[in-house]
């Protein structure tokens, strides 16, 4: 699959699918543990700028309603951002307040992970052998949605309606059964 350029998009649907793909990629980045590079992107506004620019195309209503300066103002120092990330997403007496693992939001975590892996495999993807997040981690799922939305934008530009509909249906089902549970 070759990369798409803005000139490749002939319709609003193609452009929005491409923008959604980028939104998923930026959200994946935003919800990863904040290293120094990411903290710099937060502070200089690059992260919120990237998200704002793509959301204006993908969903102008969300873009208009967000406080884009709030992220830039997060934490007085670098450690404060990492500590808050850990508090929110990784630790807590009875678990983190907002766990990033979708399988923790139902009583069948293994089943949730197996379903996610089947989705990934169906589209020719496998989990990396490198130490990465588990298949039900929100960043893994956002990476998959980034892939599917990209595949949709490519399909809208180069394939027929049937292939495009398969990818659109997969996105809806994956959001409903996985990411939607977390949200």
Q: What does the secondary structure layout of this molecule look like, with pairings?
A:
Elements: H1 12-30, H2 36-43, H3 46-58, H4 60-65, H5 78-89, H6 109-122, H7 138-158, H8 161-182
Helix pairs in contact: 1-3, 1-7, 7-8
Question: Termini distance?
Answer: 30 Å
Along the chain, the helix and strand elements come as HHHHHHHH
> Which structural class matches the secondary elements?
mainly alpha
Largest sheet: none
| Global Rg | 17 Å
Oligomer category: single chain
Helix fraction bin: 55-70%
The low-pLDDT segments are none
Strand content: under 5%
Number of E strands = 0
- Helical stretch count? 8
Overall pLDDT: 86
- Described by the principal axes of the CA atoms, the overall outline is globular
Compose a concise summary of this entry:
This protein has helices at residues 12-30, 36-43, 46-58, 60-65, 78-89, 109-122, 138-158, 161-182. It is mainly α.
Describe the fold and architecture.
By secondary structure, this protein is mainly α. The chain has 8 helices and no strands. It is globular and about 50 Å long. 63% of the residues lie in helices and 0% in strands. Helix 1 runs antiparallel to helix 3 (46-58) and helix 1 (12-30) packs antiparallel against helix 7.
